[in-house]
Design goal:
alpha/beta, Glutaredoxin, single chain
Length: 156
Amino acid sequence: MALSVGTSAPDFTLLDAEKQPVSLSSFRGQKVVLAFFPAAFTGVCTAEMCSFQNAIQRLNGMNAVVLGVSADLPFSNGGFAKANDLTYPLLSDWTMATINAYDVAFENFAGIQGLTRSSRATFIIDAEGIIRNVSVTANPGVEPNYDEIYDAVEAL
């Protein structure tokens, strides 16, 4: 069960595609769309990350940033970002410490026994670091409801 609304978002420091550390706490004062995705270069993940990119001006206009998090290595995330013209940080959680802290691990991903990745999960975090909206798809092959996500950001 993912973290619940009203709780403090666990801080983390993960490497971006350029192997630079990025901490959630560095975005205090801004709203954060924290989007966990199972795997770079997969169809639904590509559609989701591109949907956030397509809304980036709208989100930035609401004082919000997007952070994508997966268990992929920085090199994979870098190639994925470049291939899809993604301008927001894709962060690597290869140890799955952050995925586990947010309680969004998905076991036996794609039917592969023993392969654990993140669920498709989005957390809306307010400027003070409090989780205000949680969306976890039951099936990682299903995109989130973007209108609900954007409305939750706008409501803050």
